[in-house]
Amino acid sequence: MAGLESIYTAFGIIFFSFTALFSLFSLLVFILRLRPWCNCHVCRSFLTASWSKDFDNLCDWYTHLLKKSPTGTIHIHVLGNIITSNPENVEHILKTRFHNYPKGRPFTAILGDLLGRGIFNVDGDTWRFQRKMASMELGSVSVRSHALEVVAAEIQTRLIPLLASVSGKQSNDGVLDLQDVFRRFSFDSISNFSFGLDPGCLEPSLPESKFAAAFDAASKLSAERAMTSSPMFWKIKRFFNVGSEKQLKEAVRTIDDLAKQMIEQRREKGGFAAKNDLLSRFMATVDDDRYLRDIVVSFLLAGRDTISSGLTSLFYLLSKHPEVTRAIREELDRVMGRAGGRRRRRRRGCHCELWTDAGNALLACCALRDHEALPAGAIRFQVLSRR
């Protein structure tokens, strides 16, 4: 009997030792793949933050490296990430073999607190369901007409009057930060379109919106997670609820509270099918309130910075190329007439109301269809985590 017990004990020790050795070996392989001690100039610059001496932000540094790379692709070994600006690579990853490049847990963990199960943070059937639903809703005439009405109203009642209020002034009172103005414009528009909520960011006094501030903070702090040399750092801070993770938690709570309030109000009023904002449309299909919040917040994220960045780049280019500005004005005069007035045009199957000022601003964007609307050095990134 004692002999059997000795054998069992020996086998237990052997099994435990083997498990421990295998775990250590797996950890070693994982660390070797990450190459945390990599001494190449890219990793050395990243770890020591020496890149910040010459560049204002990480994306500018990445752009510099990508321009120097003959393949338009770089590898940050210490992060286990590959970054590419090669159009063929981007098409391969995002279109041709999209199913072969899941986001994976490291990526979804970074954005999980803000985006949850939104379309930018999921794979497989969940992603396909949201994409199908979004395509169906965004393709409907009523939703597109609603979007045009929201944007046109924001331009006519807020954007143009704000710009006109400082036009021609010679003092500092006549100076506006257009990038900030366009961010406010896009946030008002996308919030109204997504939630049916008007934050009023573009009011003449340019007030600070609690929701906009929380959304900005949550986006910024979530992005900073990806810049840490190891996810362990931000996970430890989140566990102890300190520093940036505490700020992120508070910002996300503000977003959650507002989303919950909006969803509860819609459920009380009912009549989802009669409304054209995205939240109401999705509520007709989805019953899970948390899932609804994640879906709509993802659309909010998608619409805000893309619109403001595009408009900022557009008007920056117009300021550098007055001949293009003249061409736009000539086309506007041809299409709408110098007297302006209200016109109704049919475009791609949906009715659009074009007012003199609002229509000019909207049509100006269309007039640049033959011109690059982004800076020449703009890069579209796809970061792949090695798994």
UniProtKB/TrEMBL annotation:
Signal peptide: none annotated. Keywords: Coiled coil, Heme, Iron, Membrane, Metal-binding, Monooxygenase, Oxidoreductase, Transmembrane, Transmembrane helix. One of its GO terms (molecular function) is iron ion binding. Residues 241-268 form a coiled coil. Its cofactor is heme. It comes from the Eukaryota. The chain crosses the membrane at residues 7-32. Belongs to the cytochrome P450 family. This is Uncharacterized protein.
